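We treat protein structure as text, and this decision shapes the records that our systems exchange. The tokens are whole numbers drawn from a learned vocabulary of local backbone shapes. One such record is reproduced below, unchanged from the form in which we store it:
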Amino acid sequence: MSVRIRMKLMGRKHRPFYRVCVMDRQRARDSKAIEEVGFYDTSVADKSKRVSLNMERIEYWLSVGAQPSEKVNALIKKVKKGKFGEALAPPPMIAPKAPEPEPVAEVASAEPAETTTEESGE
């Protein structure tokens, strides 16, 4: 039996929440886990509080031969180093720009244009 440490999707639509679980490799993503060793909540604003892992149990499972998934491996490294990065502040609210009025085309002058034709002098 090959064992993996991976995330199990919980939560609802557009609001994901993951449990970090030790599972048999051939099981479905959301099936029964051997052991749950933490969670990952993407909706928490403070990045350092998004992840909670029981590192003692994870170290045990790694020593027994469990393989972490790519995402869980990245989370484990971040927890060990304590570097989660900074959450970016939302951009400031800016009022939309008012549309610029279109330039008015020059209106032809109301006076008739003078002609250079000679009139006969009767």
